[in-house]
Amino acid sequence: MSDIRIEAGKLRAFMERAFEKEGFDTHQAQRIADVLMQADLFGIESHGAQRMMYYHQNIASGSIDVHAHAQTLRETPVSALMDGHFAMGQLTAAKAMETAMEKAKKTGVGLVAVRNSSHYGIAGYYPLMAAREGLAAFSMTNTGPIMVPTFGREMMLGTNPLAFCMPADPYPFWFDASTTVVTLGKVEVYDKRGREMPEGWTIDGEGRVCRDAHAMNASILAGRRGGILPLGGEGETHSGHKGYGLAIMVEALTGVLAQGLLCPQMCGAHGDHTSHFFLAFDPAMFGDAREIRARMSEYLQMLRDSEKAPGQERIYTPGEKAHEAMADRLENGVPVEENTLAELRQIARELDIAPL
Questions:
Q1: pTM over 0.90
Q2: Which residue of 29, 100, 175, 260 could cross-link 275, Cys pair, CB 3.0 to 4.6 Å?
Q3: Would the CA dihedral through 149, 113, 34, 105 be positive or negative?
Q4: Kind of pairing, strands 109-117 and 79-83?
């Protein structure tokens, strides 16, 4: 299957129309579309337009409540606990990060835990919100079970991504990664393309290497044994235990701290009842904010300028490829896989809106 390039403004407008037709108001639809578009513009295909059908189906089934709003249950000058009431995850997460940012601007730091939410898109969207206002920030979420523990073969943890962003020039340091080798979305993309997965991504119910994306996608969604390996891969030889430990850390700050459901208790691989964690802080607590930004910028440039490995022309810093991808996609259009485009056209028919 090949990709079709769609003009970014056209794709964004389609997403906004679709979410308005789903029942969201204009501002809400714009926020949800912005999160999905950020993923596609940054080249994270698994969390952009490819996710539209998933949201469409969850709204239709009622697992996402279009009319719900996040509620603050407990609050201090530096923290808040929210209940998402199963609203659209992007809306709840943006509200939570805005709360963390407001507290950080007043006290220097803001922490917000959220329970009873839903899939919130790319974790890195929310720290980027803070970086645009001169703050540094973290974002984390648990998900439905998809990861097998080190030496295990039963899915007990989610992809449990974590993201961090810190202001710098010419663009911020931006890191967003799952604690699994890959996300389920990546398996889905390989399934759609009819491609075999690289070795080291997943194991089957017998603990054997599995490269069949279609079989693994079906197995994960059915909740069978086997699943995606922790970051680092199988066993401890290549530090799979470190990815496993990071996933537990994310679970501690999300499902445990927010007193929501834990990964194994959730329904399905994507998970309902997800929990999130956000932390924003003001670098000015530690000194002159401009000097700290300049110091970070200088360090990132030192990394880029350091000696290259044989045959390599460039060293990238986290976020650099994403911003270059965005420049390309804004100029040349967003690549959309043919099966994903077919899904978008199906959504258009069901919502009675103009197709792409």
A1: yes
A2: 260
A3: negative
A4: parallel
